[in-house]
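Notebook B, p. 112. Complex prediction, attempt 2.
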Amino acid sequence: MSGPPLLEVRALTKRFGGVTAVDGCSFAVRRSTITGLIGPNGSGKTTVFNLVTGHLPADSGQLVFDGRPVTRPDPGRLYRRGLSRTFQQPRVFGELTVLENMSAAAGHDWRALAGRRLSARDAARGDALLAEFGLSGHRDTPAAELSYGQRKLLEFAALLMSEPALVLLDEPTAGVSPAMVATIERHVRARNTSGTTFLLVEHDMGLVMRLCDPVIVLDGGTVIAEGPPDDVRSRPRVLDAYLGG
Amino acid sequence: MHEAVQAVILGVLTGGVYALMASGQTLIFGVMKVVNLAQGALVILAAFLSHSLFTAWGVDPFLSVLIIAPLMFALGAAVQWLLLRPLHQDDAALLSLLVTFAVALGIEGALTVVYHTDYRTTRPAYVDRSWRIAGYQVGEVRLAAFALSLITLGGLWMLLSRTRFGRSVRATVQNPVAARLLGVETARVAALGFGLGAATAAAAGAVYGMVYSFNPNSHYDLISRLLSVVILGGLGSLGGTVVAALVMGVASSLVGALASPVWSDFSFFVVLLAVLLLRPQGLFGARLRGAL
Amino acid sequence: MRHPYRHASSSRALFAAVAATAVLVACSSSAKPSSSASSHAPLKIGISLSLTGDFSDPGKSAERGYRLWADTVNAKGGILGRKVQLSIVDDTSSPTQVVGNYQNLITKDHVDLTFGPFSSLLTIPASQVAKRYGYAFLEPAGGGPKVFAQHLHNLFFVQPAPVVKQGDVFADYILSLPAARRPKTAAYPALDDPFASPIADEVRTRLEAAGIKTVYQQIYPAEITDLTPVVSAMAAKKPDLVVGGTQADDAYRMVKAMVQLKWAPKLLYLSNGANDPHNFPGNVGASNVDGIFSSGDWFPSSNTYGNAGFLSAYTRKYGGTAGTIDSTSAEAYSCGQLLEEVAAKTGKVDNATLISALHTGSWQTLEGNLSWNADGAANSSYVLVQWISGKMLPVYPAGRAQHAPVIAALPWGG
Amino acid sequence: MRRRLGRYRRYGPGLAGLAGLAALVVFPLAVSAPWLVTVGLFTLMYAALASAWNLVGGYAGYPSLGHAAFFGMGAYAEAIWWTHRTAGSGYGPFWTLPPIGLAVAAVAVPVAWIAMRTRTDVFAIVTITFLFVVQTLAFNLRGLTGGAQGVAMPVAPFTPATFERPFYYAMLALLLLALAMSYGVLHSRLGLALTAVRGDEDKARSVGVPVGAAKLTAFALSVVVTAMAGGVWAYYLSFIYPQFAIDPLLSIGMVLMVFLGGRGTLWGPVLGAFVVAPAQQYLAYRFGASQLYLLAYAALFVVVMLVMPRGALPTLRDRIRRAEARA
């Protein structure tokens, strides 16, 4: 399925003091793809994530999400519109139970504040997702007691409560066991099959090559290559960037 | 016009003393992210010690700093080591706020037991002298106090920028985790930093005791102003603190002389709230909080 | 849902706490009220004083005065054969605590009489409690306008006149000068305090009526550490006379600021702070006090009723010299004197007798001869004092003066 | 045994709550001594204040040191409204409390909106600065507040023997209101949102939790109770001054009680208030003269922070859980 891209980034720029972290960066994420965003350390990948999701204000550039321009990106509003993200270090609410973590991420606005702490609908959907992610056994434990890998899974699963159109995963497999890498990969594929679009920052090249198409390569805050993984891999500029230039 | 200039002169001199008092506060915040509510009480404690040394043995208040500063250093280091270090990490910021308040209450209580609540002033022979400079009166003590503030602040700056200890402090301020990995013993640095912050209170207290009258309750009047100065200066920035203290000194003095003294603190607080509205990190706060 | 479970243990704890409170209550309410009816039981007087907190020094002075009086009267065999027993409790300078304290004293300890607290700010809530239970309220310290605006019949302010009138004696003195020697212009800086700024206002009203021009008028807040901006603004207006509505440390600060700025008016009156023989020279410097006027209710050299005995008893009990006695001690002592006199005259010491007796006639105290209006304000007057050759001496009115007022340049002027 | 415990867990809290409430309702009727009722009324006041503070300081993790300002605003609003009116039967001043609570909350929302741009430590300082601003206004707006001279309210015409009762029940009603709010918040989505905010505010924002609305609602609820308590206090004392109505020590007292009992719990603040408030009154009455009062207070404070930094209830609960796990 093609048509207009789900996310379009145009000439995005961000400076920190004298350093230009993101420099006129432009790319698009097409619907139903698993797009990879790679690049050497310090190439600006996480900053791009932060700019796209409104965690950092951009100095200049435009964003178009789902056909509508985003003038003042606000993380909460974008989340409710279907754009969500994970963090490099998984961030869950340690004092809430696993199920409550699911409910907290359901994307309700202020009108729901007066409602029950855990609505029957949220609980049912949360339970279904927890079953899908194999976390049902931990449903009522505080999230602080989960292992690192389990927290990554929980953070990912919780986002799905909002039925996002686009999920930005920031190094989803960093620091987890090989078995957990496989689990995460399986879940991303499964969700992609059912229609969710992904944008991935990842250092595990094997995973990127297996999972992503297309792949966007970032260096010095600009896009230096874009295309199918095998194609991108062989370009000399990309090799230069990775091998140090 | 004459009044305004006189007010500015006074404001700058007063601001110098506040800069000295607040520098310890900002140092402590920078090193440990602890808002030290006891800083005012430490200043008043030092003022009493200096007053006692002067009345009992005739020790000049400026010289008394040399005796009091080590004592205050030990007290500050002890507070950090015994009371703040054991706090639960997750809530350290909030709990330390309360613990330092308890320390302030404790100091106030002890001072009340020993000295009662009568007001005092340290009065060396030169305290009433003043110079007339271009038609403006400038008290000798105030000028000397300002000079002492500059010297202490300069010394502090040298210490932080030129010594190994200073580098450890700055490393701890910028990134405690990395500093620990690089072999800086952060707990010890924190104790030394707190001690140093308390030691600057010694200088501030000796000066305060000559310029103003004080009693054990006086720290309540000090602390809100010190906190405002530290926030306005951008929490943890030494240079910002000095500028903020001068801004406060001049603003209070001008409003006091030209409008009414009942609004002088108020106007400063309103400025503070306005600044926070526009720049939550304070006037000079670096994006990475705590660049000394 | 985890929450009901989560709160189980806390509810248990709360229940235990409530149960414990109930037990405590049961025990204490079964305690027998003391039998105050017996004529040989001690006469219990309840007083709440600020022994800690902002007002603790004057609070302790008041305590010394009260205790000295109790010792004195007990040495003479007590009142109507009953030993006086004081219950002095601490209110930590808090109005919430002072209300609780008087209530405790009256309804728990069943004291026979109550005397007032020290801090003037605490007098109003305390006097309401005394009124509620029909107790006479002899109070040595609450003389602000709002105290009398309560129109309490049971309240007696044991000082010569309402605090507002403290500066009147100075205005009287200025107006007694021949017109040519009077100051032409005046400045009125005053502390924002119910017992300071009204004094300056009262003097200003009277001097303005007599044609003395007001060139500067300013209220400053209590937490001000430095009065230099005020003094420099005032100096720019060059007033002949400065009338400071001061309380204590702000008087020191004002003199210090004048000294530092090397500016002095021709006449300087400070309502309080400058009338403290012990602390004033220590804070502003003994060489800076001469010529400053102040006024007050009591001085060691007063020739009022019982003063000689008071001075000797005080120095015997607490040491020191007469010059170090705070007037608050004398005010507190005077409350006791009144009680003694009423008992001697009527043969009774109950509250109703005390209230009706004090509302008729005039009574002798260390504070002078006092009589009260319906709201509890006495109708006497204060004494003007001036620092002369390092000593604070009564100078006006003539009847109580020990020296004539001296008009000379202040020591730091020039 | 196990089943009995289970049943206790289901019904126990409700029963204990009811029993506690009944004890509190009966207290002034059973105990005729006015001084005890006074102690009770101030204890209830502190319990209500601590519970209200807990909504912001405990649940949301925003330690406000400025709550005394809202207490003072409530006190002044009540006093100014009634200063030139007569109290009639004496119950009138209680009916003006709800609108005063709401009005002060309306003022508090923009203040909170500014202050809550900052986090924990800075937030604490900003709020205490706000407190000093309000105190300065109370001193300086003489036309409105009477300045340092204070404001008088009509004295309630209740009979001396039962004078305290109406005030006592007003404070009890406020405590119940605060507890109802606490309970409601805990069991609503607002509570979930606040716990998320306390844990990781940025993350909460990024998963669409309406962070601003949640914080402001908690703050406003908290202020409603705080301001009304101020109103009752003013009426009880019948005379207020700026330095007592807007007293930083009141803020500190709330914080101490909440920390002692347990932050973010329903009953913790109440427990803290029931221990500290009577102890404070009694110790000052009994031992204040010894001068060591402040030192003792400071020592208690430090001990609480070092020994049970999370408060009595959570510490106790952990003990019980561990003991049960072992059994």
